[in-house]
Design a protein that fits this description.
Elements: H1 3-18, H2 23-30, H3 33-48, H4 57-70, E1 73-78, E2 82-88, E3 95-101, E4 105-106, E5 109-119, E6 126-136, E7 152-153, H5 158-173, E8 182-188, H6 196-202, E9 211-222, E10 226-227, E11 231-234, E12 236-245, E13 249-250, H7 260-276, E14 285-293, E15 300-301, E16 304-313, H8 316-336, E17 340-345, E18 353-355, H9 357-371, E19 376-377, H10 389-394, E20 397-405, H11 426-444
Parallel strand pairs: 3-8, 3-9, 9-20, 10-19
Antiparallel strand pairs: 1-2, 2-8, 4-7, 5-6, 10-20, 11-18, 12-16, 12-17, 13-15, 14-16
Length: 445
């Protein structure tokens, strides 16, 4: 940013801080007992009935019902189950979007249970530790409103995201006559691996939008604080699955086989050299193999082996380069061992998430006004991926995380954990933050 632009930005910050935009009023309104109880009820209803990507029918129905009660018009269906609502102010003005993802997660939690067995023989007592695997598929948080659907849970806070955006809708609808533009409310399906944002954009639902903002809950931050940074904050991500086919046979006659297990092991080791030998040490890239499946007995080689994992980069160019090299290395290493290989990638990889500098600064100023400067923190860059990145490719975008950590309540567990829970005191903060950013953006334009 040059000196002239920086001076302009300082001037704008001064105007914002001294303007009459009702940031504190927004938060006070959202914290009113009746308002907060309304949000709690919504969030708990969604939490009890989790739905995975592009199956969010009940969630969508609840959202539409609340929008109708508020007198807000909407479009539906968008990307199968999504809802895009509009609060249209006076005159033309800019069009600004607020986004919340709706989908829940599938659960497959494996627990290791060790049992000590004591058996008396002619020789001293032996302690045998047997590892038993239990596969559970239920929410384990101690809540009265936990998931009623086996195998599914809102373990990433999307139920809170939807609730906070509905809260913002209620606040903004009350200010409709004074809005200096249009605010679109994007209730998006399929964030968890389905690239729902891409499909929302492909349907043209946001073609007329100038910028977009979203919030994601963060268990590492105490409730009452937020975090973000300008520039790229989340990585690009893709997955791969490899099938190596060889020739099975007895382990006593290896010369008559083409061992796919050996080929797979060699390939996995070679993939790691793409990071250690081909990647600039000042760049961030990862290749991780997460599963391997092949063979069922001790002395017979299988016909094929399957393995897969994820690869990530902080740049879209980096993910494209890794994809090409993974394909080349897998096929070549399989051939070295007289095997063949098939490599499958995601239909649509997630690109890196980049915060627009100006929109980040607007949101940061609002956050400081709502919560105090001490409660606005920089965001450490992560290799985690978010399909909000697709919006950031098309228009100025900003993602902030919002704290939910409250040790007294047990809101301390990471997302995607069966113990994950949300401190509901975040709901009015998120609603006011959403609304404040939208108002500030329209005021700026």
């Amino acid at each position: 940013m040059n000196s002239f632009a920086f001076l302009l930005w300082l001037l704008f910050c001064t105007v914002l801080s001294s303007s009459s935009l009702p940031y504190e009023d927004l938060l006070n309104s959202a914290r009113e007992p009746e308002f907060l109880d309304w949000m709690r009820i919504i969030r708990r209803r969604i939490h009890q009935h989790p739905e995975i990507g592009f199956e969010e029918y009940k969630t969508s129905e609840l959202i539409r019902s609340e929008l109708e009660t508020l007198g807000i018009e909407y479009s539906w269906p968008v990307a199968k189950t999504g809802v895009v609502a509009s609060i249209v102010g006076s005159g033309g003005g800019p069009r600004f979007a607020l986004r919340a993802d709706m989908d829940a997660l599938g659960l497959q939690i494996i627990f290791h249970f060790s049992v000590g067995l004591h058996e008396q023989f002619e020789f001293p007592v032996i302690d045998l530790i047997v590892s038993l695997l239990f596969v559970l598929s239920q929410e384990l948080a101690d809540l009265s409103y936990k998931s009623k659907v086996d195998g599914k849970m809102h373990a990433c806070g999307h139920d809170a995201h939807v609730t906070m955006l509905l809260g913002a809708a209620k606040l903004l609808q009350g200010l409709k006559s004074s809005l200096k533009g249009t605010i679109k409310l994007v209730f998006q399906p399929g964030e968890e691996g389905y690239a729902g944002a891409y499909h929302v954009l492909e349907e043209g639902a946001l073609d007329d939008v100038h910028a977009i903002f979203c919030i994601h809950v963060d268990h590492t931050l105490p409730t009452g604080s937020v975090s973000s940074s300008p520039g790229t904050i989340l990585g690009s991500a893709d997955t791969f699955e490899v099938i190596i086919k060889g020739k099975g046979g007895h382990a006593a006659a290896l010369h008559r086989t083409a061992d796919p297990l050996l080929a797979a092991c060699s390939t996995i080791l070679s993939l790691q050299q793409l990071i250690s030998r081909e990647t600039d040490p000042l760049e961030s890239r990862i290749i991780s193999v997460g599963f391997m499946d092949g063979g069922e007995t001790h002395d017979v080689l299988p016909e094929s082996v399957t393995f897969g994992g994820t690869f990530r980069s902080m740049t879209t160019e980096g993910i494209d380069s890794l994809r090409q090299r993974i394909q080349e290395v897998v096929v070549s290493q399989a051939a070295v061992h007289r095997c063949t290989a098939i490599v499958k990638f995601m239909d649509r990889a997630y690109v890196s998430t980049t915060n627009d500098d100006n929109l980040y600064n607007i949101a940061r100023t609002v956050a400081a006004g709502l919560l105090g400067e001490a409660n606005v923190h920089p965001f450490p860059r992560l290799m985690g991926a978010e399909d909000f990145s697709f919006y950031s490719q098309r228009m100025p975008a900003a993602l902030f995380t919002i704290g939910i950590r409250n040790e007294s309540l047990g809101s301390i567990h990471t997302t995607h954990s069966p113990y994950f829970m949300v401190d509901e005191e975040v709901l009015p903060i998120g609603a006011a933050f959403h609304a404040g950013v939208a108002l500030a953006y329209l005021e700026r334009r």
